[in-house]
Design a protein that fits this description.
With 762 residues, this protein is of the alpha/beta class. It has 27 helices and 22 strands. Strand 1 and strand 2 form a beta hairpin. Helix 1 packs antiparallel against helix 2, helix 1 packs parallel to helix 4 and helix 23 crosses helix 24. It binds phosphoenolpyruvate and magnesium ion.
Length: 762
């Protein structure tokens, strides 16, 4: 069954359009299940009716003619209940509805399953037999599995407008509008610039070429290079290869000939596609063919074809310049990483769209620091066709609009202006102290990592740096920076802010933070080798960093060292041991350094219960709410499917934060918050009400948070905190807090969202 399923899914996915995909599916389902009928009814939301879209077994003339009301007939019943319906005698069921044009009176048994994508009902898949006998359990399970796979295909077709010609879908289906997660506020307009990670076949778009000869030459050169590369590998390992293994190289060599794969690629180039597009097309087709074969030997060959395809693509792309940008652009990609973002020419970077990721991904953190609006988590975005299209990124509402109308463009241009005006307003208070109405001073520090942060933070009168993410400068290099290189960039950071304190976090890699030259490949990276776990295993890397930080602090004496991902006291003790060793070494070398205060991040739930033990060993605590929320709620901070479960107002998160600040007071240890929660004005007010007196946040949010804190009385906010104590629903808590703060006059910055105000217009 599994094999058949795999084959059907592959055929459906490779169909050229939705119509043929549905055709393939009904034929395959009917044959596999030995049924007389297989049909698909899709729900047209604008008409509120099911339409028979494809069938094998019912009268072909009834296709797209027969339709049912939303709760009509057995199909309607399956949809309303959202569960399978398995009947041996369908016509005896009170909901049975007979359509003369289908000829279905002959069929007795009925099995219908709903087609659901991300909780939305899309239609119903039905099989019928003449024999009066219920479908068995395994058949029911098979149909449910097929339906779940089909749901993704239909949803994608709906989103891209592929269902357009079928009089189906919701009212706005013709608008190229995609909903994701707003990860950096603001609105941006520009031309989509699609980033393609090198040598990733699936990201190569089709492009018409005017220079067919040139593309053919490029292809020939790439083939020759791959040929040489393979010959060199074969020669190098010739003695350790068995004859069978050596035969693999012969297979590759054959594929690289004009009579093989390469010949087909050239035919597509001659038909007008550029070399990379032609390569992708042919390789993907061959992979599918091999993968669809029943014999395991041939299925394995799919991997060989893929390997060869990637090698040729790498050669084709080797000379291509990734970033030739000449106009205001929206950077778009399957998964834009922080380093890709930082590499993009900043003068043209207006917005970012990333299919994968969420507001808590590191790329989003960098986008916010740069003040670049960003939307992520758009699984249905047709990325291959976007290059060169005009795009709007609405970071407030988490929306992306492709090829907007002139009116829509005008509306969004006016939002850009409104944003700029608000910023001017906020800027007028940049030199004012951050003191609440009842006279409590809150220290606002900044999170840094990229150079723009530093320039802005200096101007905006911050209390210093609460979190310098040292991994960011490491990411922008091609190897580990030497001790001297590190001394230079740490010194720059310390000198820019001196005498204000700069808290430097030791290297926090792993999870979603990868160094291109030190890949960590794990099944479960967020629970794996991350942060301090990596650096304690690599004292040679850790020691160089510590020594560099200490040397950089000579005569400035504003360094503080912060340790990430601490889960137990042994990690603290081992780290302290190395820090003291580095300190002695550096002193022995003649540097007049002071021992800096040492702190730990509270970002693993286990740390919440060890505040007392930590307080005996270090000087300060810094709460990393990004990871703390992820681990407390067991919600991957990068996974857009579960992004709505990642919630700063979750009662468990709020209780944890209260408990940390209380325990820190009890054990007389300084505590601050450096996660993204501190950058949300409403949450920042709550944190202050809990007792946090020091917040470190992205520079992009600093003025809004200050504006809010300067307008609240913390005694009143403590009452608000008590009120929400009895509430148990994160969304209700959020609405209540935001509503209360808006009532107190903070509406400009709490949920500052022009998109909400203009939603009727667009
Ligand atoms: C955090 O986890 O909250 C934090 C500040 O660290 P990072 O986002 O770099 O993991
Ligand atoms: Mg963290």
């Amino acid at each position: 069954m599994l094999e058949t399923l795999r084959r059907i899914v592959q055929e459906v996915n490779s169909a050229p359009n939705l119509e043929s995909a549905l055709e393939v599916l009904v034929s395959q389902v009917r044959d596999t299940m030995n049924a007389e009928v297989a049909s698909i009814y899709l729900l047209d939301y604008s008409q509120k009716r099911y339409i028979l879209m494809a069938s094998k077994g019912l009268n072909p003339a009834s296709i797209r003619e027969v339709s049912l009301e939303i709760s009509e007939g057995l199909v309607g019943l399956v949809g309303v209940r959202e569960e399978p319906l398995n009947l041996e005698n369908a016509s005896a069921h009170p909901k049975f509805r007979y359509f003369a044009s289908t000829g279905e009176e002959r069929f007795q048994s009925f099995l219908g399953v709903p087609i659901i994508h991300q909780r939305k009902l899309l239609g119903v898949l039905v099989t019928q037999r003449i024999e009066q006998k219920r479908f068995d359990q395994s058949e029911e399970a098979f149909l449910i599995t097929i339906s779940a796979q089909l749901a993704g295909v239909i949803a994608a077709a709906e989103a891209t407008g592929a269902i357009t010609g079928m009089n189906l879908g919701s009212e706005d289906k013709y608008v190229s509008r995609f909903t994701g997660i707003g990860c950096a506020q603001g609105v941006a307009l520009g031309t989509a610039w699609v980033h393609r990670p090198k040598a990733q076949l699936s990201n190569v778009p089709d492009k018409v070429t005017a220079d067919i000869e040139g593309e053919l030459v490029k292809m020939d050169n790439a083939v020759a290079d791959v040929h040489d590369e393979l010959a060199a590998i074969a020669a190098k390992i010739a003695t350790s290869l068995s004859p069978q293994e050596h035969a693999l190289f012969d297979v590759y060599a054959q594929m690289l000939q004009d009579q093989g794969l390469v010949g087909e690629i050239k035919l597509r180039i001659q038909a007008g596609n550029w070399a990379e597009g032609a390569l992708r097309f042919v390789i993907e087709r061959h992979i599918k063919q091999f993968e669809g074969m029943d014999h395991p030997y041939f299925r394995e060959r799919a991997l060989d074809v893929k390997d060869l395809g990637i090698r040729m693509l790498a050669k084709l792309q080797a000379k291509a310049d990734n970033f030739i940008v000449t106009q205001p652009s929206i950077l778009v990609g399957e998964e834009i990483t922080a380093s890709v973002l930082m590499d993009f020419p900043s003068e043209y970077l207006k917005g970012v769209i990333s299919i994968r990721g969420t507001a808590n991904s590191h790329m989003a953190i960098v986008a916010r620091a740069l003040g670049v609006p960003c939307v992520m988590g758009l699984s249905l975005l047709p990325i291959r066709t976007l290059g060169g299209c005009f795009a709007i990124v609405d970071g407030y509402r988490g929306e992306v609009i492709i090829n907007p109308s002139v009116d829509l463009k005008r509306i969004y241009e006016s939002i850009v202006l409104t944003d700029a005006e608000l910023n001017v307003n906020l800027l007028s208070e940049q030199d004012e102290p951050c003191t609440t109405l009842n006279g409590v001073d809150i220290s606002l520090l900044v999170n840094t990592g990229i150079s723009t942060d530093v320039a802005l933070a200096k101007d905006r009168c911050t209390a210093g740096v609460g979190l310098y993410r040292t991994e960011i400068p490491f990411m922008a290099r091609e190897r580990f920076p030497s001790e001297q290189e590190q001394v230079e960039f740490y010194r720059h950071q310390l000198a820019e802010f001196a005498p204000r304190p700069v808290t430097m976090r030791t290297l926090d890699i792993g999870g979603d933070k990868m160094l291109p030259y030190f890949p960590i490949i794990e099944d479960n990276p967020f629970l794996g080798w991350r942060g301090i776990r990596v650096t304690l295993d690599h004292p040679e890397i850790f020691m160089v960093q510590l020594r560099a930080m200490l040397k950089a602090s000579v005569n400035l004496n504003n360094l503080r060292i912060l340790l990430p991902m601490i889960g137990n006291v042994f990690e603290i003790e081992e780290s302290l041991h190395l820090i003291h060793r580095a300190y002695l070494e550096v002193q022995e070398e003649g540097f007049n350094v002071q021992m800096p205060p040492i702190g730990v991040m509270i970002e693993i739930p286990a740390a919440i219960y060890q505040i007392g033990s930590f307080a005996q060993r270090v000087d300060f605590l810094s709460v990393g709410t990004n990871d703390l929320t992820q681990y407390l709620l067991a919600v991957d901070r990068n996974n857009s499917r579960v992004a709505d479960l990642y919630h700063g107002y979750h009662p468990a998160v709020l209780q944890a934060l209260k408990s940390i600040v209380k325990d820190a007071e009890k054990h007389r240890i300084e505590v601050s918050v450096c996660g993204e929660m501190a950058g949300d004005p409403a949450l920042a007010v709550l944190l202050a009400a809990m007792g946090y007196r020091s917040l470190s946040l992205s520079i992009a949010h600093l003025l809004r948070v200050k504006w809010a804190l300067r307008r609240v009385d913390l005694q009143q906010m403590e009452k608000l905190l008590e009120e929400i104590d009895s509430m148990d629903n994160a969304e209700v808590i959020r609405s209540y807090v935001e509503y209360s703060l808006c009532q107190s006059g903070l509406d400009q910055v709490i949920r500052f969202n022009p998109g909400v105000r203009i939603s009727n217009e667009i």
